[in-house]
């Protein structure tokens, strides 16, 4: 395999730019032969065609001979009607007339048949040349769209197998975040919702994105649904395959009471200390995040909440 890419990982490429050229001696020779056959086929049906011009001359000669023999036959026939001449001369003229007619007809049919064969040969040559060109083009690996070279898997001289990846390209201005949402929460997700996320590679920096697509088929292995998000700006992280921690904002509330989710017990209850006693109190909950839960009723900001014995 020959390797001619001049770009390095992280550089930009344009649509159609050649990234790799595979060794293509045999298909190039096949393409050259097909192009030669096509050129010859086009020449054979052009005004310069030796084949058609020879047949056209033969047809014109047959037409001329038929006209002469027809004139001679009519002359002998008229003379015989006047009792002039011999029957032998008339019969010979008639025979020559009929032969000339058949030769003229044969010359015309041969010309038309040859023209049809040459046209068919040209179409076949065009088809073969197009197929050879397409086969040869497969040996030139090009960028399908404008983007960024994220990773090169092959170097000059390395072998490559069919369907084996040789480079990783992507659109730098349209990076995608792939999220996995638990089946219990997927009904709360809809396109356009805001996503706050951070990646292992970017540390504590928070990026903003929005839900762009929700896939309807659940991953049975981990009971999650795939959800895609795109960044709100062009300043999203340029790191591929990095782990992501994300929060999808499904609702917003201000001035509400929240407690750590770890303090909530089964049945939406909490342990509280009241008048020196430890009680289990049911509460009504609202919005939940991965860390906190909203308390609608059953506790207030003065309630003394204790660590649960069996946290939910």
From TrEMBL:
Keyword annotations of the record = Coiled coil
Family matches, as InterPro entries = Beta-barrel_RND_2
User: Where, if anywhere, are coiled coils annotated?
Assistant: 90-128
Q: Which domain of life is it from?
A: Bacteria
Which Pfam family is one of this chain's hits? Beta-barrel_RND_2
For whether the record's keyword set contains Transcription regulation, the answer is no
The record's SUPFAM superfamilies line, in alphabetical order, gives: HlyD-like secretion proteins
The residue ranges of the CusB-like beta-barrel domain are 178-232
User: What PANTHER family is this protein classified in?
Assistant: MULTIDRUG RESISTANCE PROTEIN MDTA
- According to UniProt, the name of this protein is HlyD family efflux transporter periplasmic adaptor subunit
